[in-house]
Specification:
The complex is a heterodimer of chains A (about 300) and B (about 290). Chain A is mainly β and about 300 residues long. Chain A is built from two helices and 20 strands. Chain B has a single domain (about 5-85, about 95-240), classed as Jelly Rolls (Sandwich). Classes of the chains: A mainly beta (about 300), B mainly beta (about 290). At the A-B interface, strand 16 and strand 20 of A face strand 15 and strand 20 of B.
Chain lengths: ~300, ~290
């Protein structure tokens, strides 16, 4: 009973059916959760805690959104491979690497969407806040499965225009914009990416779950890997990303700060790694490599990204 | 240096710094002349001060503030008088070292969004302050922050200060939106006994900032006996604010500082259920979460 969605790019995506209004993910059977596209209720304590908190809070205003999907960025997907140093080009935040012989099959976090202003009328601004798997190191370095919030901010006819939307991307495929889910600055969003990847194997399917816990809007979308690509799961990351420096392109605004909370990466076969226990990443710019956006591992499960620029 | 006089004899001194005024390089007397808080000597505090002002350089939009006394929120629950009743504050509170008093408090946070619900009234206050928690000065609180008032289908966010028991005073011409990062400093040298305080409020996201000097309520003076970073609400009128991180939480006593996360945490309860819970994450970071 899944609905077919045709993305603007022409690729077909099969959406999950709308759950009945009486549906309670805290008590539903595992098969029901899967059928309706809800993230599995994992056994790890941190997963149970987040699940309970999210659902306990939003159940009186929960609204399931059937997403509309579009790939409307005219630019081709850009390489997202950071350099292997604490200071890299376009990522700031935190990253953990899977324990030897194991791989990550899922990731979670929640964060408050920052408000951003365009200081210049003639400049476009972009910020992406997201969580993801792979993209950092080793066999997974050239792919990324990621989901989060994008914000395009610019002046249009003299007034500030803000386009805020959830999105996902399984690089090297294009970014897919998720329409129909209202997100405003100051809203607390939860993102969970889950796969059914067994230990020692890889996966070509994932579910991206997105909830705006402030207004109750929630949705889930099944995601397929680009052809020839599979999830490796050797890194997990919580990131504020700036646009790649292209002449005439968008730039990172002063976004204030973003705290990723409840940062966990799940290990195929069970167990988890706290997101704040790995490496911090900074966005740097200019000849002096001054820090524009700083990642700080605040606690084992909290990662702060803080604007500190602009580039000199 | 105009003096604005409001109801109840509340008077506020405002200033007109010249365009391009840069508090990072201004002399001490210029800072005083233009109503800015003095640049702290303590290296960590100085770094924080520079962080705010260096960042706003080039897009600092200095607001000459206008004010409005908030006697009570129309149609709303009783205004938060800033008095700790044991169930209306959540966040962190610290006390000065023995024999000292606090003379300054600083903090910054991203203002969370919250949605109104037809038929309901909510008032969430997010603020930092001195006094009000313990000691000889109960009923006296020096505080500044942002209020979120939700009534039926409307919502409003505004910055304010209050030196209780005088009334709460909103800054009526400095806009704050959900998702904005705001930074506040309240300084009242020398600490205990102070009868004037400089309030500095910056919306780092938009670049709007102001600074002004307020006076203690008649016959009151600062005790400097506590510093706090607080999400405050009547437990029956707390809106779901998601979560809020108070960051760079520092209180100063003389030349020493105390991190806001080094004291005790406070939660708001409805009956026996915590509905706003705080966690002292680090010495300078306090997390508050809606948990009803």
């Amino acid at each position: 009973m899944m609905a077919d969605i045709t993305a603007q790019s022409g690729s077909k995506i099969r959406a999950f059916p709308r759950p009945p209004s009486s549906f309670d993910p805290l008590t539903a059977a595992a098969a029901e959760l899967e059928y309706y596209g809800f993230p599995p209720r994992r056994a790890e304590r941190c997963a149970v805690k987040l699940y309970r908190r999210v659902w306990g809070r939003i159940k009186d205003r929960y609204q399931y959104i059937e997403p509309t999907l579009s790939t409307d960025r005219s630019t081709p997907p850009l390489p997202r491979t950071p350099t292997f140093s604490p200071n890299n080009v376009n990522w700031s935040g935190g990253v953990v690497v899977a324990p030897a012989g194991q791989s990550f099959c899922g990731i979670q976090a929640e964060w408050v969407v920052p408000d951003v202003y365009p200081p210049l009328q003639t400049q476009g601004y972009w910020i992406g806040s997201w969580i993801g798997l792979d993209g950092y190191i080793g066999a997974g370095a050239n792919i990324v499965l990621q989901a989060g919030v994008g914000q395009d901010v610019y002046y249009q006819n003299g007034s500030i225009h803000r386009d805020i939307f959830p999105w996902y991307e399984w690089y090297p495929d294009n970014m897919v914009k998720i329409g129909g889910v209202p997100v405003s600055p100051g809203d607390l969003v939860v993102v969970i990416i889950s796969t059914a990847m067994p230990p020692g194997q890889s996966s070509t399917n994932a579910t991206v779950y997105f909830a705006n816990t402030t207004n109750g809007a929630s949705m889930s979308v099944p995601v397929s890997a680009p052809s020839g690509v599979q999830l490796v799961g050797n890194s997990a990351e919580w990131i504020v990303e700036q646009p790649l420096p292209i002449p005439g392109g968008d730039t990172l605004p002063d976004y204030g700060e973003v705290f990723f909370a409840d940062c966990e990466a799940y290990i195929a076969g069970g167990g988890s790694v706290d997101g704040g226990t790995g490496a911090a990443l900074n966005i740097t710019a200019g000849v002096a490599n001054s820090v524009v956006s700083r990642g700080v591992l605040i606690s084992p499960t909290i990662i702060q990204c803080s604007y500190s620029g602009p580039a000199p | 240096m105009p003096v604005i006089t409001l109801e109840d004899g509340i008077s506020i001194r405002t200033f007109s710094p010249p365009p391009g005024f840069d508090p990072v390089v201004a002399t001490a007397s210029e800072l005083e002349q233009y109503g800015f808080p003095a640049r702290p000597n303590h290296p960590r505090l100085l770094k924080l001060y520079q962080r705010v002002f260096a960042r706003l350089k080039g897009r600092l939009n200095y607001i000459e503030p206008a004010f409005r006394v908030i006697r009570d929120e129309s149609h709303g629950p009783p205004p938060s008088a800033g008095v700790y009743t044991g169930d209306n504050w959540s966040g962190g509170v610290v006390q000065p070292p023995l024999g000292k008093s606090f003379n300054q408090v600083m903090g910054e946070w991203v203002v969370p969004n919250a949605y109104p619900k037809p038929g309901e009234v909510f008032l969430n206050s997010y603020w930092i302050g001195l006094d009000g928690f313990i000691g000889p000065a109960l009923g006296e609180v020096l505080q500044a922050g942002v209020d979120c008032f939700l009534f039926e289908t409307s919502s409003s966010l505004y910055p304010w200060h209050q030196w209780a028991p005088s009334a709460k005073v909103a800054i009526s011409n400095l806009a704050v939106s959900a998702g904005d990062l705001v930074a506040i400093s309240i300084s009242a040298p020398p600490g205990a006994g102070a009868t004037t305080a400089t309030v500095h409020f910056a919306n780092i996201s938009s670049g709007a900032a102001t600074s002004y000097v307020i006076s203690a309520p008649p016959s009151y003076q600062l005790a400097g006996s506590s510093a706090e970073w607080v999400v405050e609400a009547d437990p029956n009128h707390l809106a779901d604010y998601g979560q809020l991180f108070f960051d760079n939480c520092i209180a100063c006593a003389g030349n020493s500082g105390a991190g806001g996360g080094t004291g005790r945490k406070l939660d708001i309860y409805r009956g026996s259920t915590p509905i706003s819970e705080s966690t002292l994450i680090t010495s300078q970071v306090i997390q508050c979460r809606y948990s009803a």
